[in-house]
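Q: What structure does this chain adopt?
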Amino acid sequence: MSHKYSLVHLTCISCPPPEFIRTAAAAGYDYVSLRTIPMGLPNEVPHLLTDRVLLKETRAASLETGVKINDTENARIFDGVNVQEYAPHLAAAAELGIKHILCNVWTANRSFYTKKFAELCQLAAQFDQDINLEFVTWAGITNLEQAAQLLRDVDLPNVGIVVDALHFHRSRVKLEELESLPKEWFRFMHLCDAVQEIPTDLDVLVHDGREERLYPGEGAIDLKGILSKLPENIVRGIEIPHSVRTAEIGFEAHARRALEYAKKYLE
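A:
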């Protein structure tokens, strides 16, 4: 079958959605995955679809290029979060036909994050959207087992899990853990590569995740093994931020090269 690829916003997080979509089209992608709900990180450039001008320009870029928007992020669960504050962001995403919302958990308080995740899923259901939980090595939910348990605890129909290859590898998840989980939980994933050795320093983990991921086939992550356990039609998100390479060859060339590496290695 013909696999579909999405360019994930973290690959060039400062790029506004209309330009990002046009770059994805030029580089040969089918979809984009946008970050339109800010995480409040240092030096983050917010791209808010609640801005009607940006929403209009984003829709125009998608229609002009034929590149669809697969998902948007990041509806985080963190201590003190008010889930209802995400409502305008989800409503704006719904105007663009975005059905999938990515979420992380950034608190260790299980009873709190379970309650808030359920609230978020119920809110998303009002917009005919699903909430897809990505476990992150240095976050509150760090591995597949914890993610799956949360989905079982809330027991709602519009839930899913996003497997990010970097976090899968660096959280030491085993391939066998995917086998017993419902296939319908997995709608899209994030592809990248990394060296075999897993850093123990938090700053290194964060730096690698946000600034220095490798092209598929350059490292040691068993990407083929991961994909073999996921649905055949899963959207393959390319999330490969690399500040040095982007500075050297430009964003479009970097995005194109990432896709070429992925297709050559995986197909």
